[in-house]
């Protein structure tokens, strides 16, 4: 993401029309992109929510277990709390890797085909530029 404000000009790619956006939404390529996203996001979300629920339930109902000293003044509760934070960063890193390798190429292919279709519309006088 750029911090420099971009002003439209002749080098900007044409913007697809609303009808073309609806075609993209109904395309098998876009359905595959959504399916790929959901195949990763839903299981990972379920995993993290379950992991977090276990942590909260242990904190609420297993006081003796959470108070067990692991090392010095570090008890199981603190250890699991830090593990929650580490898990969040780990999941974020895994998602970035997944998105870069699986989602971005599919999204770019859809974007490229939409740009070609929009350019054809502009060259035929049927569309507008952004």
UniProtKB/TrEMBL annotation:
Pfam families from the UniProt entry: DUF485
Keywords: Membrane, Transmembrane, Transmembrane helix
TM helices/strands, residue ranges: 40-62, 74-96
Keyword RNA-binding: no
PANTHER family recorded: INTEGRAL MEMBRANE PROTEIN-RELATED, MEMBRANE PROTEIN
The name this protein goes by in its record: DUF485 domain-containing protein
Organism: Gordonia asplenii
